[in-house]
Amino acid sequence: MAKRNNDNQPIQDILKEFVKSNNLQSGLDKVNVREAWVNLMGNGVNNYTTAIELKRDTLYVQLSSSVLREELSYGTEKIITMLNESLGKEIVKKLVLR
Question: Which domain of life does the UniProt lineage start with (predicted)?
Fold first, then answer.
């Protein structure tokens, strides 16, 4: 019978090591950015959001309303700051509204 390893580790540390060893952080960042956008922007903006995609450090957001796109373009720096604060690290450096 195999011996049991009694090195107790918190599950948080084990999951972090798993994510790091399997290079999953970029995929998790993409999911987290989508969730942050939905939570920060609210229903008014989310109703007109058709696609959210993170490529490297640029967030591409496709909107179905040209008026809303124009309004949001005035506050891109603030949106980037809010997203990064919500994520807890600087992931988004540029925001492109389509």
Answer: Bacteria
